[in-house]
Amino acid sequence: MLTNRSWTIRPAEREDRTVLSDIYLYVRRTTFTWVDPGQFHEEDFAAHTRGERVFVCEDRAVGIAGFLALWQPEDFIHMLYIRPRFQGQGAGTALLEALPGWPVRAYRLKCLVRNKPAMGFYASLGFQVTGNGTSPEGDYLDMQLSVAAEMSR
User: Fold this and answer.
1) Taking all residues of the chain, what is their mean pLDDT, rounded to a whole number?
2) How far apart (Å, rounded) are the C-alpha atoms in residues 39 and 44?
3) Calpha distance 69→110 (Å, rounded)
4) pLDDT reported for residue 6
5) Whose CA is closest to 44, among 119, 106, 137, 117?
6) Would you call 19 exposed, middle or buried from its count of C-beta atoms within 10 A (0-12, 13-18, 19+)?
7) Which of 22, 45, 59, 92 is least surrounded, with the fewest CB atoms within 10 Å of its CB?
């Protein structure tokens, strides 16, 4: 269900860490159902985003809906996590469109094959499969934003 929310995208601040850590933990435990939830820990967010640029998506009325972590030297989108109740409401798209140079830069990411909703989301935005691999959470596809596909949207 798409709503006409007015999402605000901003750099993450130190005060956001607890909320972002909670989102990261909750979404991984509820989405990656094929992985033992005991493998995910509250301290993972700080360790997994070290050195990355983190953007927050929020709405004044509802608070933080999600975040995106970017490894800027390689235009690599390391994480994009949205609270389930805000999925399908434009928060993920707003985060991506706020990236520096979007849609001219050919941003890359990895998406777990078993995460079908995310695979469809990225494909709908013009990300194309460029490779594959395996991680502790399962098989993934390397994807890259096709600038030509995005420009024709």
Assistant:
1) 91
2) 10
3) 13
4) 85
5) 137
6) middle
7) 22
Question: What is the C-alpha separation between 14 and 7, in angstroms, rounded?
Answer: 20
Per the listing, tokens 């999925």 go with: 87
8-151 domain in CATH 3.40.50.300? no
* Section 91-115 average pLDDT: 95
Is the pLDDT at 4 greater than 80, yes or no? Answer: no
Domain residue spans in the chain?
Answer: 8-151
Q: Please list, residue by residue across 39-78, b when 16 or more beta carbons sit within 10 angstroms of its beta carbon and e when fewer do.
A: ebeeeebeeebeebebbbbbbeeeebbbbbbbeeeebbbb
**Whether 114 contacts 135, CB under 8 Å:** no
